[in-house]
Amino acid sequence: MVEQGIQGVTAVTEGRAQYENTRSALRRKDTNTTIALLAPSLGLVLLGLAVPLLLMLRYSLNHWAPGELMSSAFTLENYVRFFSDTFYLGVLFRTLWISLVSTVACLVLGLPAAYYLSRLKIRWLKTALILAIVIPLLMGNAVRAVGWIVLLADRGLINEAMIYAGVFPEPVRILYTGKAVAIGLIAVLLPFMIISLQAVFDGVPESYEEAAMNLGAPPFVMFYRVLLPLIIPGVFSGCLLCFVLAMNAYATPVLIGGPSFHMMAPKVYEQALKVFNWPFAASMAFILMATTLVLTISASLALQRRYGTI
Q1: What is the pTM of this model?
Q2: How far is it, in rounded angstroms, from Cα 261 to Cα 36?
Q3: CA 273, 279, 284: angle at the middle one, nearest 5?
C-alpha cells in the first residue's frame, strides 16, 4: 500500500510537471504568434512615425539663416526663440484655449445625445440617427469649413436671419474670429465625441439606473454617482480624441479664422513651407506635441486618482 501511494504521488507530480511544461510551451507559442502578428503594424508605425519624429527632432536643433534651408548644428536657439517671443506664446495659449473650449462643448452636447441614442429602442430610428451623425465625417474639413463661411459671413444666412427677425440692427462680425473657429471645431469634433460616448453607454445596463432611481436617487445624483464612474473610460477617450484633433486642426482655423487668427498647426505649416524655416517649424511641432502629451497624461493621472483605472 505504501509503494502504491508513493507511485501515485510520483505519477501526480510527473503529470503536474508535464502540464506545466505544456502550458509554458503554449504560452511561448502564443507570444511568438502575437509578435509575428504585431510585427508588420509595429514596423509600419516605426517607419512612418518614429523615424520622422526623430528626424524632425534633429532638424529642430539645427540653425537657420535666410537664403538657406538649414545648416547642421546642435543648438536650442529655436526653442529659446519660441518661449521668448510673446507672439508665439500667445498662439500656443490661444490654441490651448480653443481646444479646451471645443472639447468641453463637445462633451456637454455629446453626453445627452449619446445617452439618448444608447437607450433608444426603435431600431430604424437609432440607425438613422447614427447615420446622420456619421455622414458628416465622410466630408473633408475644408468642405464643412466653406459651409460655415456661408453661414457665418457678415451677409451670411445667420446674420440675414437675425436682421430679418429684428434681433440685430446690422450684421454682427462672427466670421474670422475665435468664436467662429470654436463653432467650426465643435461641428467637426462632435460626431467623434458622440460615437465614443454612445459605445460606452451601450455597455452600461439600464438596471443600474433603475436600481439607483428605485432607491430614491434623483436623476442628477444617479448620473453623478452611478453612470459617470462607469462611463469615465468613454469620456476620457472622447475628450482625448477631440482635444488632440483640435490642437492639431489646420483647415478650420485657416478658412474660418482667417489670416488674423493664429493657431499652432497653421503656423507650423507657414514656417515650414512659406518661410522655409524648417528648424523653427520642427521646434514648434515638438512644442505642440509635448504640450498635448503633458496635458493628456496629467488628465489621465487625475482621473485615475478620482475614479480608478481608465
Answers
A1: 0.81
A2: 48
A3: 80
